[in-house]
Protein backbone atom coordinates (compact mmCIF):
# COMPACT_ATOMS: atom_id res chain seq x y z
CA UNK A 1 0.00 0.00 0.00
CA UNK A 2 1.30 3.47 -0.90
CA UNK A 3 2.00 5.48 2.26
CA UNK A 4 1.97 8.94 0.66
CA UNK A 5 -0.20 10.97 3.04
CA UNK A 6 0.57 14.34 1.48
CA UNK A 7 2.80 15.93 -1.12
CA UNK A 8 5.21 17.48 1.40
CA UNK A 9 7.78 15.10 2.92
CA UNK A 10 8.33 17.06 6.17
CA UNK A 11 11.96 15.93 6.29
CA UNK A 12 15.35 17.61 6.62
CA UNK A 13 18.40 16.27 4.80
CA UNK A 14 20.82 18.62 6.61
CA UNK A 15 24.00 17.30 4.96
CA UNK A 16 26.08 20.24 6.25
CA UNK A 17 24.82 19.79 9.81
CA UNK A 18 25.55 16.04 9.72
CA UNK A 19 29.13 16.53 8.58
CA UNK A 20 29.71 19.33 11.08
CA UNK A 21 28.37 17.36 14.03
CA UNK A 22 30.38 14.24 13.15
CA UNK A 23 33.63 16.23 13.02
CA UNK A 24 32.73 18.03 16.24
CA UNK A 25 31.78 14.80 18.04
CA UNK A 26 35.05 13.02 17.19
CA UNK A 27 37.28 15.98 18.21
CA UNK A 28 35.27 16.55 21.38
CA UNK A 29 35.46 12.90 22.43
CA UNK A 30 39.25 12.85 22.05
CA UNK A 31 39.78 16.04 24.04
CA UNK A 32 37.24 15.06 26.73
CA UNK A 33 39.33 12.00 27.65
CA UNK A 34 42.45 14.19 27.90
CA UNK A 35 40.72 16.82 30.01
CA UNK A 36 39.07 14.38 32.43
CA UNK A 37 42.44 12.78 33.18
CA UNK A 38 44.14 16.17 33.49
CA UNK A 39 41.42 17.59 35.72
CA UNK A 40 41.62 14.68 38.16
CA UNK A 41 45.43 14.69 38.28
CA UNK A 42 45.75 18.48 38.69
CA UNK A 43 42.81 18.74 41.14
CA UNK A 44 41.64 21.93 39.42
CA UNK A 45 37.89 22.54 39.80
CA UNK A 46 37.97 24.87 36.81
CA UNK A 47 39.43 22.07 34.71
CA UNK A 48 37.12 19.42 36.18
CA UNK A 49 34.05 21.62 35.59
CA UNK A 50 35.20 22.18 32.03
CA UNK A 51 35.69 18.42 31.52
CA UNK A 52 32.20 17.77 32.94
CA UNK A 53 30.86 20.24 30.42
CA UNK A 54 32.80 18.43 27.68
CA UNK A 55 31.21 15.12 28.70
CA UNK A 56 27.81 16.74 28.37
CA UNK A 57 28.92 18.00 24.94
CA UNK A 58 29.59 14.44 23.82
CA UNK A 59 26.13 13.35 25.02
CA UNK A 60 24.51 16.45 23.52
CA UNK A 61 26.21 15.91 20.16
CA UNK A 62 25.16 12.26 20.16
CA UNK A 63 21.58 13.31 20.84
CA UNK A 64 21.80 15.95 18.11
CA UNK A 65 23.10 13.38 15.61
CA UNK A 66 20.19 11.10 16.46
CA UNK A 67 17.77 14.01 16.06
CA UNK A 68 19.15 14.78 12.58
CA UNK A 69 18.77 11.11 11.63
CA UNK A 70 15.17 11.15 12.87
CA UNK A 71 14.47 14.35 10.90
CA UNK A 72 15.32 12.53 7.64
CA UNK A 73 12.63 9.89 8.19
CA UNK A 74 9.49 10.35 6.13
CA UNK A 75 5.99 10.78 7.62
CA UNK A 76 3.82 7.72 8.20
CA UNK A 77 0.25 6.99 9.26
CA UNK A 78 1.11 7.69 12.93
CA UNK A 79 3.54 10.60 12.51
CA UNK A 80 2.02 12.65 9.71
CA UNK A 81 4.42 15.57 10.31
CA UNK A 82 7.37 13.20 10.19
CA UNK A 83 9.99 13.33 12.95
CA UNK A 84 11.14 16.93 12.65
CA UNK A 85 9.93 17.78 16.15
CA UNK A 86 12.53 15.41 17.64
CA UNK A 87 15.12 18.06 16.78
CA UNK A 88 13.36 20.44 19.16
CA UNK A 89 13.02 17.82 21.91
CA UNK A 90 16.76 17.09 21.65
CA UNK A 91 17.55 20.80 21.85
CA UNK A 92 15.32 21.18 24.92
CA UNK A 93 17.17 18.32 26.64
CA UNK A 94 20.53 19.84 25.67
CA UNK A 95 19.45 23.15 27.21
CA UNK A 96 18.44 21.39 30.42
CA UNK A 97 21.85 19.66 30.48
CA UNK A 98 23.54 23.07 30.36
CA UNK A 99 21.47 24.28 33.32
CA UNK A 100 22.27 21.15 35.36
CA UNK A 101 25.99 21.49 34.63
CA UNK A 102 25.92 25.17 35.63
CA UNK A 103 24.19 24.27 38.92
CA UNK A 104 26.77 21.54 39.64
CA UNK A 105 29.67 23.93 38.96
CA UNK A 106 28.12 26.51 41.30
CA UNK A 107 27.67 24.01 44.15
CA UNK A 108 31.19 22.61 43.74
CA UNK A 109 32.56 26.15 43.56
CA UNK A 110 31.04 27.03 46.95
CA UNK A 111 32.53 23.84 48.45
CA UNK A 112 35.98 24.69 47.09
CA UNK A 113 35.77 28.26 48.37
CA UNK A 114 35.07 26.91 51.87
CA UNK A 115 37.77 24.22 51.58
CA UNK A 116 40.44 25.43 49.10
CA UNK A 117 42.67 22.81 47.42
CA UNK A 118 46.11 23.03 45.89
CA UNK A 119 46.14 22.63 42.11
CA UNK A 120 48.87 21.60 39.66
CA UNK A 121 49.13 24.88 37.76
CA UNK A 122 51.48 23.62 35.03
CA UNK A 123 49.21 20.74 34.03
CA UNK A 124 46.12 22.93 34.43
CA UNK A 125 47.56 25.60 32.11
CA UNK A 126 48.82 23.12 29.49
CA UNK A 127 45.50 21.26 29.14
CA UNK A 128 43.48 24.48 29.17
CA UNK A 129 45.63 25.87 26.33
CA UNK A 130 45.00 22.75 24.23
CA UNK A 131 41.31 23.04 25.09
CA UNK A 132 41.26 26.66 23.97
CA UNK A 133 42.64 25.73 20.54
CA UNK A 134 40.18 22.83 20.17
CA UNK A 135 37.19 24.93 21.27
CA UNK A 136 38.06 27.86 18.98
CA UNK A 137 38.23 25.40 16.06
CA UNK A 138 34.91 23.73 16.92
CA UNK A 139 33.14 27.05 17.55
CA UNK A 140 34.21 28.30 14.11
CA UNK A 141 33.08 25.05 12.45
CA UNK A 142 29.65 25.21 14.11
CA UNK A 143 29.24 28.93 13.38
CA UNK A 144 29.84 28.34 9.67
CA UNK A 145 27.38 25.44 9.70
CA UNK A 146 24.71 27.70 11.28
CA UNK A 147 25.11 30.13 8.37
CA UNK A 148 24.59 27.30 5.86
CA UNK A 149 21.67 25.57 7.63
CA UNK A 150 19.50 26.98 10.42
CA UNK A 151 19.28 24.12 12.92
CA UNK A 152 18.38 24.46 16.61
CA UNK A 153 20.44 21.35 17.39
CA UNK A 154 23.56 22.90 15.89
CA UNK A 155 22.71 26.13 17.71
CA UNK A 156 22.47 24.29 21.05
CA UNK A 157 25.79 22.52 20.27
CA UNK A 158 27.30 25.92 19.44
CA UNK A 159 26.23 27.26 22.85
CA UNK A 160 27.87 24.24 24.49
CA UNK A 161 31.16 25.09 22.77
CA UNK A 162 30.90 28.81 23.43
CA UNK A 163 30.65 27.77 27.08
CA UNK A 164 33.69 25.49 26.61
CA UNK A 165 35.63 28.28 24.92
CA UNK A 166 34.91 30.63 27.83
CA UNK A 167 35.77 27.83 30.26
CA UNK A 168 39.17 27.34 28.64
CA UNK A 169 39.88 31.08 28.81
CA UNK A 170 38.72 31.10 32.44
CA UNK A 171 40.98 28.19 33.37
CA UNK A 172 44.00 29.86 31.73
CA UNK A 173 43.31 33.18 33.46
CA UNK A 174 42.75 31.35 36.75
CA UNK A 175 46.05 29.44 36.47
CA UNK A 176 48.02 32.61 35.67
CA UNK A 177 46.46 34.62 38.51
CA UNK A 178 46.97 31.82 41.05
CA UNK A 179 50.63 31.50 40.01
CA UNK A 180 51.25 35.21 40.64
CA UNK A 181 48.97 35.80 43.63
CA UNK A 182 48.74 32.40 45.31
CA UNK A 183 44.98 32.87 45.78
CA UNK A 184 43.59 29.35 45.39
CA UNK A 185 40.06 30.73 45.76
CA UNK A 186 40.31 32.10 42.19
CA UNK A 187 39.96 28.58 40.77
CA UNK A 188 36.39 27.96 42.09
CA UNK A 189 35.47 31.65 41.68
CA UNK A 190 36.21 31.66 37.95
CA UNK A 191 34.46 28.29 37.65
CA UNK A 192 31.27 29.85 39.06
CA UNK A 193 31.47 32.74 36.59
CA UNK A 194 31.80 30.20 33.78
CA UNK A 195 28.80 28.33 35.21
CA UNK A 196 26.73 31.52 35.05
CA UNK A 197 27.57 32.02 31.37
CA UNK A 198 26.71 28.38 30.61
CA UNK A 199 23.39 28.85 32.43
CA UNK A 200 22.49 31.81 30.19
CA UNK A 201 23.15 29.73 27.08
CA UNK A 202 21.04 26.88 28.42
CA UNK A 203 18.15 29.23 29.19
CA UNK A 204 18.16 30.65 25.65
CA UNK A 205 18.06 27.18 24.07
CA UNK A 206 15.31 25.99 26.44
CA UNK A 207 13.22 29.10 25.75
CA UNK A 208 13.45 28.71 21.97
CA UNK A 209 12.65 24.99 22.13
CA UNK A 210 9.79 25.61 24.59
CA UNK A 211 8.15 28.17 22.31
CA UNK A 212 8.22 25.71 19.41
CA UNK A 213 6.91 22.83 21.54
CA UNK A 214 4.08 25.08 22.77
CA UNK A 215 3.28 25.87 19.12
CA UNK A 216 3.51 29.60 19.71
CA UNK A 217 3.65 31.97 16.74
CA UNK A 218 7.34 32.15 15.68
CA UNK A 219 8.91 35.46 16.69
CA UNK A 220 9.79 36.35 13.10
CA UNK A 221 6.09 36.59 12.19
CA UNK A 222 3.41 39.13 13.06
CA UNK A 223 0.05 37.31 12.98
CA UNK A 224 -1.96 40.54 12.73
CA UNK A 225 0.13 41.67 9.77
CA UNK A 226 -0.39 38.35 7.95
CA UNK A 227 -4.11 38.45 8.67
CA UNK A 228 -4.29 41.98 7.23
CA UNK A 229 -2.41 40.83 4.11
CA UNK A 230 -4.86 37.96 3.63
CA UNK A 231 -7.79 40.38 3.92
CA UNK A 232 -6.41 42.33 0.95
CA UNK A 233 -6.79 39.35 -1.40
CA UNK A 234 -9.69 39.70 -3.84
CA UNK A 235 -12.83 38.03 -2.49
CA UNK A 236 -11.61 37.62 1.11
CA UNK A 237 -14.07 39.25 3.52
CA UNK A 238 -12.86 37.89 6.86
CA UNK A 239 -10.08 35.73 8.30
CA UNK A 240 -10.52 33.85 11.58
CA UNK A 241 -9.48 30.66 13.40
CA UNK A 242 -5.96 31.45 12.26
CA UNK A 243 -3.01 29.47 13.64
CA UNK A 244 0.68 29.69 12.80
CA UNK A 245 3.36 27.52 14.35
CA UNK A 246 6.74 25.90 13.70
CA UNK A 247 7.10 22.14 13.36
CA UNK A 248 10.85 22.63 13.51
CA UNK A 249 13.29 25.42 12.68
CA UNK A 250 12.38 26.90 9.27
CA UNK A 251 9.38 24.52 8.87
CA UNK A 252 6.20 26.53 9.37
CA UNK A 253 2.52 25.63 9.11
CA UNK A 254 -0.53 27.90 8.93
CA UNK A 255 -4.24 27.18 9.06
CA UNK A 256 -7.10 29.67 8.68
CA UNK A 257 -10.84 29.88 8.02
CA UNK A 258 -11.81 32.47 5.43
CA UNK A 259 -15.19 34.03 4.57
CA UNK A 260 -15.32 34.77 0.81
CA UNK A 261 -17.80 36.55 -1.39
CA UNK A 262 -20.36 34.27 -3.02
CA UNK A 263 -19.42 35.44 -6.54
CA UNK A 264 -15.73 34.49 -6.13
CA UNK A 265 -14.35 31.11 -7.18
CA UNK A 266 -13.04 29.59 -3.90
CA UNK A 267 -10.19 27.72 -5.61
CA UNK A 268 -8.84 31.04 -6.90
CA UNK A 269 -8.87 32.44 -3.36
CA UNK A 270 -6.99 29.41 -1.98
CA UNK A 271 -4.41 29.67 -4.78
CA UNK A 272 -3.88 33.39 -4.13
CA UNK A 273 -3.58 32.88 -0.37
CA UNK A 274 -1.06 30.04 -0.73
CA UNK A 275 1.04 31.99 -3.23
CA UNK A 276 1.13 35.09 -1.04
CA UNK A 277 2.08 33.12 2.09
CA UNK A 278 4.87 31.28 0.31
CA UNK A 279 6.34 34.21 -1.63
CA UNK A 280 6.13 36.88 1.08
CA UNK A 281 6.54 34.91 4.30
CA UNK A 282 8.16 31.63 3.28
CA UNK A 283 5.25 29.58 4.65
CA UNK A 284 5.01 26.60 2.31
CA UNK A 285 2.47 24.52 4.23
CA UNK A 286 -0.89 26.27 4.60
CA UNK A 287 -4.40 24.89 4.99
CA UNK A 288 -7.20 27.30 4.12
CA UNK A 289 -10.85 26.51 4.78
CA UNK A 290 -13.28 28.53 2.65
CA UNK A 291 -16.57 29.36 4.41
CA UNK A 292 -19.72 31.46 4.18
CA UNK A 293 -21.20 33.00 7.33
CA UNK A 294 -24.80 32.22 6.26
CA UNK A 295 -24.02 28.52 5.81
CA UNK A 296 -21.35 27.74 8.39
CA UNK A 297 -22.44 28.42 11.95
CA UNK A 298 -20.03 30.73 13.82
CA UNK A 299 -22.31 31.75 16.68
CA UNK A 300 -22.18 35.41 17.73
CA UNK A 301 -19.09 36.01 15.57
CA UNK A 302 -20.97 34.92 12.44
CA UNK A 303 -24.06 36.94 13.36
CA UNK A 304 -22.02 40.11 13.82
CA UNK A 305 -20.32 39.50 10.48
CA UNK A 306 -23.62 39.09 8.66
CA UNK A 307 -24.99 42.27 10.28
CA UNK A 308 -22.01 44.33 9.11
CA UNK A 309 -21.66 42.72 5.66
CA UNK A 310 -25.30 42.06 4.85
From TrEMBL:
It is a multi-pass membrane protein. It comes from the Bacteria. One of its GO terms (cellular component) is plasma membrane. Signal peptide: none annotated. InterPro entries: Cation_efflux, Cation_efflux_CTD, Cation_efflux_CTD_sf, Cation_efflux_TM, Cation_efflux_TMD_sf, CDF/SLC30A. It is found in: Membrane. This is Cation transporter. Pfam families: Cation_efflux (PF01545), ZT_dimer (PF16916). PANTHER family: CATION EFFLUX PROTEIN/ ZINC TRANSPORTER (PTHR11562), RE54080P-RELATED (PTHR11562:SF17). One of its GO terms (molecular function) is zinc ion transmembrane transporter activity. Keywords: Ion transport, Membrane, Transmembrane, Transmembrane helix, Transport. Coiled coil: none annotated. Residues 218-292 form the Cation efflux protein cytoplasmic domain.
